[in-house]
Amino acid sequence: MRKKVGLILVAAAMCAFTACSQESAQSKTGEKGAQPEAAAPQAASKSLVVYYSQTGATKKLAEIFQKAKNADMFEIATVTPYPSTYDSTIAAVGAQRESKQWPALVNAKADLAKYDTVYLGYPIMFGSFAPPVYTFLDSNDLSGKVVVPFCTYGSGGRKASAAELKTLEPNANVTLAYGISNKRITAENGAEVAAKEVEGFFADLATGKTDEMLMGGFTDQRALTAEDSAVFAVATKDYAYLKLAPLSVATQVVAGTNYLFVCTTSGFNRPPTETLVKIFKPLPGRGEPELIVMEK
Ligand SMILES: Cc1cc2nc3c(=O)[nH]c(=O)nc-3n(C[C@H](O)[C@H](O)[C@H](O)COP(=O)(O)O)c2cc1C
């Protein structure tokens, strides 16, 4: 069942940095006895990575954001951890969502005053943030901050959670969100794959790209060919429980091919709803087609 939704961290460092700078200054000038130039003072970190992670995937992603931005880190921790089994976690999260009784945190309040930008990371649970993030939002004032959401998910929830964040934090500047599936980030090369994507995500942020703009460059939607159907079947084989039926497809040639399938999903005995399924097929010999995200 876990598989279903699974499919659904500075003084020492400063010393090390300074020693390294001095060593390279010496080796450049070759003047071993010369007094090395004083290292330029390090600018205070202006960004903070705040994240919650139950099983480690989002933590892995948070560490990539932290490294890329040399940010400070703040891990949201609940007083009472979720149960160890997936089914009981589902039940606990379901009850919290229903009652809107968000879990108490060990560290509800963060000192946000010195930060301009907050990178906020969370796992998707029940289509949006994991409950501890609601407690964090209720306990802190993000007004005037740039808030960059990032998440991990089984199949999707990136856009919906960012939209909810905008609603809950109308006085923050909530940007485009980054998301990656649990399956991709927990793969052996997951850290490498995510770091590369996060780099591209920062470039998109810098140029002010929106989700709509990122959807550009696809062909018009058309009927599926046998080849499209085969790509769809391979990429969605672990998501049978979602009862996906592809209706049409658009493609975009990148280093490989991006597919955007318009589908209906009728899993969990729900009436069919339209969903976009994004799949990436690498260049020949570089791996199997993989599901990137499912979004409305
Ligand atoms: C209670 C619960 C609910 C979840 N709900 C969803 C969901 O609605 N959609 C989804 O795509 N993934 C869902 N997932 C999968 C998680 O988002 C995914 O496994 C995530 O990578 C876990 O991150 P973590 O390892 O940082 O805790 C859910 C997982 C749990 C435990």
What's this model, at a glance?
This protein has 296 residues and is α/β, with parallel strands linked by helices. The protein is 36% helix and 24% strand.
Note down, in words, how this protein is organized.
This protein is α/β, with parallel strands linked by helices and 296 residues long. It has two domains: 43-214, Flavodoxin domain (Rossmann fold, 3-Layer(aba) Sandwich), CATH 3.40.50; 226-295. The protein has ten helices and eleven strands. It has helices spanning 2-7, 11-29, 57-69, 86-99, 131-139, 158-168, 182-185, 190-206, 211-214, 226-235; strands at residues 47-51, 72-75, 117-125, 128-129, 146-153, 173-174, 178-181, 244-254, 256-265, 273-281, 290-295. Strands 1, 2, 3, 4, 5, 6 and 7 form a seven-stranded mixed beta sheet that branches. A hairpin with an 8-residue loop joins strand 10 (273-281) and strand 11 (290-295). Helix 3 packs across helix 8. The two termini are 24 Å apart. Mean pLDDT is 87; it is low at 1-36. The structure holds flavin mononucleotide. The site of flavin mononucleotide (FMN) has 26 residues, from helix 1, helix 3, helix 4, strand 3 and strand 5.
